[in-house]
Write a structure and sequence with these properties.
Rossmann fold; binds guanosine-5'-diphosphate; Ubiquitin-like (UB roll); five-stranded mixed β-sheet; 3 domains; 18 strands; 11 helices; binds magnesium ion; alpha/beta; six-stranded mixed β-sheet
Amino acid sequence: MMFSDIERKIKELEEELKRTEYNKATEHHIGKLKAKIARLREELEKRRRKAKGGPGYDIKKSGDASVAIVGPPGVGKSTLMNALIGKNVSQVGNYLFTTNKVVPGMMEHSGINIQLLDLPGLLEGASEGRGEGKKVLSVVRSADLALIVLDVYTYEFTEMILREMYKAGIRINKRRPNIKVTKTGTGGIQIHASNDIGLSMEIIKEALIELGYHSAEITINERGITIEDIIDAALGNRAYIPAIFVLNKVDLVIDDINYLRNISYYFRSLGIKKEDSVAVSALKGWNIDVLKEKIISKLNLVRVYLKPPNGSPDYSSPLVLKSPARVADVCEKLGENFIEDFKYACVWGRSVKYPGQRVGLEHVLSDGDVITIYLKKRA
Ligand SMILES: Nc1nc2c(ncn2[C@@H]2O[C@H](COP(=O)(O)OP(=O)(O)O)[C@@H](O)[C@H]2O)c(=O)[nH]1
Ligand SMILES: [Mg+2]
């Protein structure tokens, strides 16, 4: 098939999917349609990569975590970035001004360094390559958190942004389902499901066959899964990214309570949780501190303080680790010999039963823990 044939076929199948009402009789057909679409998208993506070479901007990662600022043009992404950092790092434009590159900047908050990535505006069709769409989406894919920015006038673009991300294999505010798919040589499709998973075995099989699996083992340790989860697990290249929805420019509608209430209804109708959204004014600096706190908590970082054997902990510069943080991850940050020469560690804080408890390399630490590491004496 040619490029454009695949695109046309996807459109057709998507149309069909829209027309098909979901019920017991169409359940199987819908499952197959979704798998077919996913497979064709995958094929299209492969050819695009070949045709264009690798996508992506050249950004040097730095800091303890990275946050992508994404949204339509003109909603105030650059203004927000500057407000978070506290100085003008990124250029702010008039309504349709768009930069075509990534602007990185560092935000410091309670001992944690967070790299912010201000991105060009995302447009409808981005996942199919419109504008800088592919590059923007690939930055989002590799970030630790996405700030999805909308403003009070264009908030209804949220659906478009979510759709483009979805098509690019990005799953927002969702845990990776516990589903394993392994290709096997023979034996057909074997499904191991430990409990009532909420999807029929037949539908799972049909979807896998559509995806090109003829012999495979699939293990599902999860309840309430959807056919999309099965497709995602089979294709395997999905990114599960936490996100905060930022509604900007509230200064413009602050007197209109009903207007703001409608926006929050709209967010809720999309399944966006209250705690995952925040209304701000980047221009006036309203609620920027609240957003900062949300960023920190959503990143789920673990701060660990080092204490020398007979001294007191150094609270001025925590080690910042991604969750789950093991003692081994601390050692790795400190240097290679720390793992090699590791004897044991003593930990104070929420991860242990009593202060100063002895633990090994696999012990998982909590935010705020204090740790002393003892090394073997070298011969
Ligand atoms: N009233 C108001 N205007 C804002 C706010 N944030 C940004 N703007 C304006 O919106 C326009 C676009 O801002 P910019 O940060 O360049 O948007 P971007 O394209 O998303 O990066 C500029 O004129 C900003 O001054 C805000 O909180 N309130
Ligand atoms: Mg901008």
